[in-house]
Amino acid sequence: MPNVNVVAAPSRGRYINSGNGPTLQPIDIGHETYIGLVDSDTAFWALVKKDKLGQALSDSKLMTRYRRKAAAFAEEMEVLRFGLKPSAVYFNPTERCNLNCDYCYIPEEMRKNGKHMSEADIFKALAILRDYFKKTMPEDRLPQIVFHGSEPMLNHEAMFAAIEHYRGDFRFGVQTNGTLLDETAIDFLTSRNIGIGLSLDGHIAKIANRTRRNWSGQGSYTKVLAAMERLKGYQGYNIICTVTSKNLRVLSEIVDFFHTYEVPVCMLNPVRCTQPGAREVKPSDAMLAKHYMAALDRTYELYQQTGRKLVVANFANVLVSIIAPTARRLMCDISPCGGGRCFFALSANGDLFPCSEFIGLPDFNAGNIFSDDIEKALTTRAFTVITGRKVEDIEPCRRCAVRHFCGSPCPAEAHEMNGSMDRTGAFCELYEEQARYALRLIVDGKEDAYLWDGWDLGTTTTFNVSTV
Predict the structure, then answer these.
(1) Burial of residue 25 (number of CB atoms within 10 Å: 0-12, 13-18, 19+)
(2) Phi and psi at residue 237, in whole multiples of 5°?
(3) Do the Cβ atoms of 332 and 338 come closer than 8 Å?
(4) pTM score
């Protein structure tokens, strides 16, 4: 079970920071009264009053109890980072897409003229995956298959047939641009409790259509809005909003819009800068952090007004990674990231990649599911350069207090944008500010308003030192 690592403000004692024990790094969280202390090696943290910082750093109660737990915390992080096996696959049933979005990580030629995977091959691939996961996962857990893109609904007949046939073997989800989700498709998916992810980058057509258009230049907003209307009330869906320089300044308005449409969960995803087109719409770190935090503030205001949450999943994951490291749901903000370690991607011709971001980058092709063993593919260099990427090897991340709440994402981005796996990706400042924001929420007792209901089911508190 995941463990909750919660620490309140200590105040007195005699131990000090030294090389003979854990080193707690002070971090300014932007709070008028409190400051953070973090042991970056174990993701242990404490929140103390600024005027009690000296006492906290020499607190016998805090340090004595933490010394007893430090090894267990380190082991917990070791298992989380290096002890997990894949339990999910991002499955591309087609290379094609009916949109030509500015920032897509799939090469244009592939999206324009690529192939569909045949129904027979989809069935065959799922049978191989089923047999693989039976050997690697507990009997009481089902692996997850997310039909992904390009645009999976272009091959929906084969995909739906596979969902129907293998419903007892996998948990299914579909990530779609939403333009092909008619009433029949939605009825099929919702009646089977299939997870549905849509993509929309704005609250009005003028904004949304700046980045998401078809090959003729026509925007997707109207069709996605129709799908949102049909999905209202369905708790198994979410919307990804990719944040770029073209919608940055209206993030708070987008949050209002999603809340009005009763979207249960959204993701405000900073654009992944793997491909050149994405880098052309990359916002600056400082501006992104400013508008991103304002949008998070707005979700809280709406919750206060209505009692209804709009969970921003990628921020919620940063928040829960602080409160309860092993309860996190996404694996982009830890190193090594989840690519090739918690999940992998399957292209429409059966090729295996550590993550969908690497489809289209031949150096990260680890073989083919129809001819190669999955276990062996996981040990190829195409995978191990991702699963071996550690934040401790990256400068300046190795010295950062919040490195285990961030993970220096994304390896594909770092490799393509900055030239090497041992470099940072984009938006370092945003991840720092999210960690500070999260710690402020904990100080003020607001964290539950930002987290999905039931996030702490099955968790236990393993460390708690209160103010004395």
Answers:
(1) middle
(2) -135, 160
(3) yes
(4) 0.91
